[in-house]
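Section 3.1: Structural characterization of target chains.
Under the original work plan, the team committed to producing a structural model for every single-chain target entering the pipeline before any wet-lab resources were allocated. The record below documents one such target. The sequence was received from the expression subgroup and is listed exactly as submitted; it comprises 247 residues.
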Amino acid sequence: MANKNHTLTLDRNSPVPLHHQLKEYLYEQIVRGHWRPNDLIPSEQELQEQFGLSRITVRRALSDLVNEGLLVRERGRGTFVAPPKLTHSPQARRSLTDYMLQQGIRPGWQVLDRGFVEAPAEVAEPLEVPAGSPVYCIRRLRLADDQPIGVHTAYLRADLADAVDEAALLEGGSLHYLSRLPQMMNARAIRTIEAVAATEVEARLLHVMPGSPILQITRVVADAQGRPLEYLQARYRGDRFKYQIGD
């Protein structure tokens, strides 16, 4: 747990609300390095007892810092100092895996499931196949130092299933598993980015609270002739990832 030796004297006569005074104290512990990334901070109950504050006051201070990306709550574990966000820029022509390696972060994957499914309409349209037709689905967790930061769900046309490099599903960038496919030569990708709320399943996989903001990136990869190869829906923890557009 994070060091608790640094004390706070609350000014109960100050016009500054108590929750804001507590927030500023917690903020200083982070920016001054008293609490390091991934440190477990004192619990709500401990903060209440330490400073003689109500549960509502403590929870409001913590929620403000969570919303600002300085703290992260993990269900069943507690509240931690947020690690620096991973930044990915497509203009850099560098995969997120390469970026993590450069930052000294160990990238990884965990395959959750894979197999043929019936294409829902939202998948069939970008892949240019009939709705309900078979497509090959691969669902993976993206890891950073063995911690989940994103969920990838990729769909391929059925005729490309045999081209999947099974070993490459656990290493390299998100398209490494298709690197042996001839159609990937000069392939292009179109991405769409939006903010969504974590579902119950995503919250469990990513160790966040249901409804937490997460970043959704949809990607359609097409060959040089414009024929779709892959449709991907990737959802990342909003407190661990940011996407950079432009220089």
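Residues 66 and 86 are 17 Å apart (CA to CA).
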